[in-house]
Amino acid sequence: MKIAKFRLAVLPALLVALALATLSACGSSNSTGPGGQRNAPSSITVLADSSLKAAFTKLGNQFESQNPGSTVNFTYGSSAGLSQKAVAGDPGDVLATTDQQSMVAAQKVQLDSPSVFATQGSNQCQIVTLTQAKNTALANQFINLVMSQPGQDVLQKAGFGAP
Asked: 152 CB contacts (<8 Å, ≥6 apart)?
């Protein structure tokens, strides 16, 4: 009789504990966002030289239509100024400069090696994902678009030369 009473008292408590453990697993804070990164946002910020504005605006619109739910925000300015902002830790996922010196100045915040994506006169335009990127996968997708043939076509129509 004592065993039966014990079972009746313990069994409901075990069921409640099991239910609570299952529910707490559903609310885990380790959710995965776009790009396979933990809590990654669905938007990126591109720091780009002002001379790239027309081409990058078109590429940003194309990127957003190819990646529903994702947005590209741009901060335009001088390559040197944007490199300084990136080094200072200003929010940004991608840096695109129109001169090599600015890219070299931002070397310590570059996640990978910069890629030459176009030329402007004797200058090489370079692009790179930044270490402070909140979604490196989405940032790399944007860079891949810039480097792709459709991206190159947009850049050439805007007056940039081939890399």
From this structure: 117, 118, 162, 163
Question: Tokens 């590209």 map to which residue?
Answer: 72
- Under 8 Å CB-to-CB from 18, ≥6 apart: which residues? none
pLDDT digits (tens, 9 = 90+) for 39-64: 467 999 999 999 999 999 999 999 99
**Residue 147 CB-density burial (10 A; 0-12 exposed, 13-18 middle, 19+ buried):** middle
Q: What's CA 104's distance to the chain center, in Å?
A: 21
- Domains belonging to the chain, first-starting first, are 41-157 (3.40.190.10)
Residue that wins the pLDDT comparison between 140 and 29: 140
Pairing of strands 43-49, 94-97: parallel
**Are 71 and 90 within 8 A, CB to CB?**
no
**Would you say 125 and 98 are in contact if contact means Cβ atoms under 8 Å apart?**
yes
Secondary structure class of 119 (helix, strand, coil): strand
How many Å apart are CA 124 and CA 137, to the nearest integer? 24
What is the tens place of the pLDDT at every residue in 70-125?
999 999 999 999 999 999 998 999 999 999 999 999 999 999 999 999 999 999 99
